[in-house]
Specification:
It is a single chain. By secondary structure, this protein is an all-alpha fold. Helices cover 65% and strands 1% of the residues. It has a two-stranded antiparallel ribbon. The termini are close together.
Length: 485
């Protein structure tokens, strides 16, 4: 194995720049602590100082204008999420009363990867600065702080396209919204910020106070699912707030590139012309109707069935993870259907987790193509999305991803069963919830993961990273061939 194939200078420089950028974000909770007169400024200032110093050291160690290569973008992405997830534990460890590093790391990585699984309880009594920090982690992880950094990478003397391809979600990574990658990153973040502001205003108008509105807007648009209350959105018991959440969860599960296209062409018809979006909307409607019908047939009132069924179905299907009801006590088919809906997730290029609707669509169309080939052995059949023929290379990549996904999922379920006392349903849903960046599972992990053994939490942390980085980004750096010339 020859490490010379990977150049350390650009890796150190970009990773250092990203850490310094994040250190600035850690000053925001200090302002919240001062505003509410909380004695929690020290943990955040310590975290700021550590990240700033470490980032500066790496940045200066890798100084010099060196063009970034694709393979280095993968390693930077993995190192950044790992380093930020681990250094992000300091405020949680010092300000939340969490006793172990594992729990703090679990909470930090869950936030950064927008998973939303938590080990904390008593959120209503925790410092607001800490609650804001958890929500901010999700917001930064939602679109990807790395994509934000790509907009300023030219100032670092390093090209950004390779890093954008490595971090941005979805099966197709080569499409740029604008001619320059920095402009693409800015366009994505303007959209992301605008949607967040709109969501916060809508929450406030629906009845939340300013603090809760901002915090829940962060986690809604990021499709993260963290809340400032133990009862999540159910704390407010408001149909208006739930309606706002449903709208913005659904919008955030749509490709941001598609949102950009709609704004650029000034036509909402662009939405309907997208086959992935039509499948996404159809899936949300199907799961919602299914869950509401199950509740209605098992004695729930019609209004309650519609309200709770619609909210929980959209929350799970978009992999957000907000809750308003004791869904784990519902008839088994309803929560199981919602967990399976999270496997598909949202659209490629959105902040949602899961396989992505693009892949699900291609898998189904490839299956139908094979059936047609059996009927017409000499026929030539193409897979199309709209008017465009999907290259076989893309179809092969989707099937490859799906196979690796199933292997990783099965392996982690077996590991969890072997090292914990969870039953099969709880272990299956725990891995599904973390690999798909959903958060809540079934049974013992429906509300909290604090009771799991330490080893189980680390397995689930790996699942979070695999899900957020879409498996290949993490696995590619573990292969011997990656390190060779």
């Amino acid at each position: 194995m020859r490490l010379a194939a990977i150049r350390l200078a650009p890796i150190a420089r970009v990773t250092g720049g990203l850490l310094m950028l994040f250190s600035i974000a850690q000053l925001a909770p200090v302002g919240v602590a001062l505003l509410y007169r909380e004695q929690t400024t020290t943990p955040f200032l310590i975290a700021f100082g550590v990240n700033l110093a470490a980032g500066a050291a790496l940045w200066f160690a890798g100084r010099g204008e060196v063009e970034l290569r694709g393979r280095e973008g993968f390693l930077i992405t993995v190192l950044f999420y790992l380093s930020l997830g681990l250094t992000g534990t300091m405020p949680i460890l010092l300000a939340s009363g969490t006793e172990t590093f594992t729990d703090a790391a679990f909470e930090s990585l869950s936030g950064l990867t927008t998973t939303g699984a938590t080990v904390l309880t008593g959120l209503d009594d925790m410092p607001r600065s800490l609650l804001f920090y958890r929500q901010l982690l999700q917001w930064l992880g939602g679109m990807g702080i790395i994509v934000l950094a790509v907009a300023v990478l030219p100032m670092l003397g390093v090209g950004g396209m390779q890093l954008y391809r490595a971090e941005s979600p979805g099966p197709v990574k080569d499409t740029k919204l604008t001619p320059r990658i920095a402009q693409t990153a800015k366009a994505l973040w303007y959209l992301y910020l605008g949607l967040t502001v709109a969501c916060a205003c809508a929450y406030w108008l629906a009845g939340m106070d300013g603090f809760d509105a901002i915090c829940h807007a962060f986690s809604t648009v990021a499709i993260g699912g963290f809340s400032t209350h133990d009862l999540s959105i159910g704390f407010f018991d408001s149909a208006a707030i739930e309606a706002v959440a449903i709208v913005f969860m659904a919008l955030s599960g749509i490709s941001f590139a598609l949102h950009f296209a709609v704004l650029a062409r000034r036509s909402a018809l662009v939405y309907w012309q997208d086959s992935e979006l039509r499948l996404y909307v159809g899936a949300l409607a199907l799961v919602s109707v299914l869950v509401a019908t199950i509740l209605l047939l098992h004695g729930h009132a019609a209004t309650q069935s519609l309200r709770e069924g619609l909210f929980q179905a959209v929350s799970f299907a978009t992999t957000t993870g907000f809750t308003t009801a004791e869904y784990s006590a519902w008839p088994a088919l309803a929560p199981v259907a919602m967990v399976f809906a999270a496997f598909a997730g949202g659209c490629a290029g959105s902040t949602a987790g899961g396989l992505k609707m693009y892949r699900v669509l291609l898998i189904f169309r490839q299956g139908f193509r094979e059936i047609r080939r059996l009927i017409h052995p000499n026929g030539i059949f193409h897979i199309k999305l709209g008017e465009r023929i999907v290259p076989n290379r893309v179809v092969e990549a989707v099937w490859g991803f799906f196979c690796v996904y199933l292997i990783a999922f099965t392996t982690m379920v077996c590991l969890l069963l072997g090292i914990s006392d969870l039953d099969f349903a709880a272990a299956f849903s725990a891995v599904a919830a973390n690999l798909n960046n959903l958060g809540p599972g079934l049974g013992e992990v429906a509300h909290n993961y604090g009771g799991l053994p330490t080893a189980s939490k680390w397995v689930l942390m790996v699942a979070m990273l695999l899900g957020r980085l879409e498996i290949f980004t993490l696995l590619v750096v573990l292969t011997p061939e990656y390190w060779r010339s």
